[in-house]
Amino acid sequence: MITQQQIDAIIDAVIAELQRQGVGNERGSALHAIAPSHASELNLDLPDITTSEYRTRSYVENTRKPDVLRALMSTTPSRIGIGHAGPRYRNIPQFIFLADHAVTQDALFKEIDPALLQQFNLFQVQTQASNRQEYLLRPDLGRKLSDAARKTLQEKCVKNPDVQLYVSDGLSAAAIEHNLRDIFPVIQQGLQQAGLKMGTPFYVKYGRVGLLNDVNSIVDAKVVVTLIGERPGLGRAEAASVYMGYRPQPDSSDADRDVVCNIFNGGTNPLEAGAYVVEYIKRMLKHQASGIKLKLIEQGASK
Amino acid sequence: MLLRTKLFGKTYEFRDLRELMGKANEDKSGDHLAGVAASSAIERAAAKYVLSEAPLWALYENPVAPYDQDEVTRVIMDAVDQNAYVQIKTWTVGQLREWILDNKTTNDDIKKIQNGLTSEMIAAVAKLMSNMDLVLAASKIRVVTHANNTMGEMGRLASRNQPNHPTDDPDGIRAEIYEGLSYGSGDSVIGINPVDDSLASVQRLLEMSYKVIQNWKIPTQNCVLAHVTTQMEAMKRGSPAGLVFQSLAGSQKGNESFGISVGMLDEAYEIAKKYSVVPGPNYMYFETGEGAELSADAHHGWDQLTLEVRCYGLAKRYAPFQVNSVVGFIGPEYLYDARQITRAGLEDHFCAKLTGISMGCDACYTNHARADQNSLENLSILLAAAGCNYFMGVPMGDDPMLSYQSNSFHDAPSLRQILKLRPLPEFENWLVEMGLWDAEKLLLTDKAGDPTMFVR
User: Is A28 domain-assigned?
Assistant: First the structure.
């Protein structure tokens, strides 16, 4: 009878031989493709490890079943098959994680590019949160326009439009930069084609979703719509949401709103998301309702 | 009631115990949001000093919510052992602190008075402690439980295998379970947070995870962290579940926002005893977190630590196999940064152990908190030194379903190696049989980290 130990020994010997031949060697370095340069000059020109090639690669040393490992890894976006150095992470997975966390952190504290606002003719106002830290600490302040913002909106905005659209950084200005060029024209043109009276669009710094209510206390629109940056996921700061409500009042809540979320190239495509939003707005206007109320009306209508 | 002192010649006076308890808390954004925090560092110092002279009976008589209006208060008060209470009721909070820290005071001594304490007293003493006080005091207290294996003994550290998946794909979850097992994670529980909370989904995940446990004869238990009512229904219909899970709040109103009551939890506990596939006698798993009550406007004007400790008082009724606070999950408006999350993690663990329940920690953060993987690694080292029962094990600490970061599969073996700790005893034997763990050197073997070993 052959024992498990003997089987293990045979497999280990086969793997060692394969590795000697350069097969199945799971590399811990990204430098493999670069030929050694002259010994005296330092020449580091490294590949981008945030690409899917490096994310889907196995970092397990000496796996017995490379094909099985690849199959397991393909079943989940979780970071498995990453191997270990002692009990800690190997270098490349560690740097991919660090890059993902860094891009997320930078997005959270980033300010919007003013050129983008100019391009879409969006003037800027601010909520009662006076800086990013206060915005994070006091969600209530992000739901209220500053006094200066109220005055500006009074002066500049068309009143009683069918649809008031505005944009806000929320928890990721990067998400606005990523999506605005695609989604904004789709929504605007869609609403214009439907013959709806549009409000004057603008940009709000440090906004929360509930700001919809306060905005409508000034513009008194039938439907208020905001494109807002979502809380960044690890390595994914480009996702935005569109929240909208029919005649938002000071006490309107999430139950009174509809949302299209996870908008980015790779999630809900921003062009398609824009089209969804236009459809939603038409339904809200038709039924004079949004959120759970709209759902119930439409369910009733379909029976 | 007069609660007053002078510091540097200036008078600091506090209206009542509620105000005093809020202002004696370490600085936390959630207490500021609730309007109960000290307005300056010196006022905080004054509050701690005054609180240290308050007698325990005063806290007993002034719970967060009145006995006749709040069932969590009733659970806590009804459980007080009057013989134990009589021994300590005239102690001050400061006396309790020094007594716990005293080298003559042992785990057995603490157990003798433990049942005379209410959650308000336990929260109060934590407010007087420094971070190292909290680590030292907690390290004295052991709470040992048993489901399919034994949790909480001295020198042991467990890891919850948390194989979450953004679409609940059973193949993906199974692959993550294998990865975790190959690093020695899974002795606390194989616990899945489902996206789809429906009965069919919960049943499917219970079946799948139980099959893995059966196939490999793993001394552990499974759990699907859906709403407790869904788990109860699944168990009644014969789905194999080890632990029964629920999130708790520290007030009746807070629990109502979670859709639970004491009556419902009593029923869940009876069903767990009847249907759980593990021998027990501990079957329940609870999660908590500072700030949950404020976010449901159910904090009764009290600080978030005191509400948190009341969760432990409620949990104790059900002799849970394990409890953990999900300390950094709630977001920066409650715990702003790494410093506040670390403090809360140390407080939660100490207070739960002093309450007498088996405590672990989900040392974690969301991406809008000022924290990172380094800060949660720091917290887990501190807590492991404090004798924390378990941490989470998430693939590289990145949970793509809950969108937050926690401890990784790699962290438990690292902590075991750094602090000379072992996996839970039955699970350790299994790891040795599987060739994954060197029980003499307390190290993973070369075979570790390859999930394909579980694919036949």
Answer: no
pLDDT at residue A106 above 50? yes
Give the nearest partner residue to B166 out of A65, A77, A100, using CB atoms: A77
**Nearest C-alpha neighbor of A45 from the set A27, A55, A30:** A30
- Kindly state the average pLDDT of the residues B430-455: 97
Interface membership of A95 toward B (CB under 8 Å): no
What value does the mean pLDDT of chain B take?
A: 97
- Indicate if the pLDDT at residue B133 is higher than 50: yes
Taking phi over 0 as left and psi of -120 to 50 as alpha, with beta for the rest, B152 belongs to left
Answer yes or no: is A282 within a domain. yes
Residue A298 lies in a domain: yes
Q: Which domain holds residue A277?
A: 114-302
Residue B423, preceding peptide bond in cis (omega within 30° of 0): no
Does the pLDDT of residue A5 top 80, yes or no? no
Task: For residue A155, give the amino acid letter.
Answer: E
CATH number of the domain within which A223 lies: 3.40.50.11240
Provide the H-helix boundaries in B195-283.
199-215, 228-236, 252-257, 262-275
| Residue in chain B lying closest to A66 (CA) | B452
pLDDT tens by residue, B304-331: 999 999 999 999 999 999 999 999 999 9
Closest Cα in chain A, distance from residue B97 (Å): 32
Chain B residues with beta carbon closer than 8 angstroms to that of A108: 367-368
| Chain A residue with the nearest C-alpha to that of B167 | A76
**CB-CB neighbors (< 8 A) of B455 in chain A:** 65, 68, 72
This model of the complex carries an ipTM of 0.94
Alpha-carbon distance B61 to nearest alpha carbon in chain A (angstroms) = 34
Determine, for residues B332 and A81 on separate chains, whether the beta-carbon distance falls below 8 Å.
Answer: no
- Which residue in the set A73, A87, A108 is minimally distant from B368, CB to CB? A108
- Using N-to-C axis directions, what is the helix angle for B373-385 and B411-419, rounded to 10°? 40
Domains of chain B from N-terminus onward: 145-454 (3.20.20.70)
Q: How confident is residue A28, by pLDDT bands cut at 50, 70 and 90?
A: low
| Largest Cα–Cα separation, chain A | 90
A76 touches chain B (CB under 8 A): yes
pLDDT digits (tens, 9 = 90+) for A45-85: 999 999 999 999 999 998 989 999 999 999 999 999 999 99
Q: How many domains does one find in chain A?
A: 1
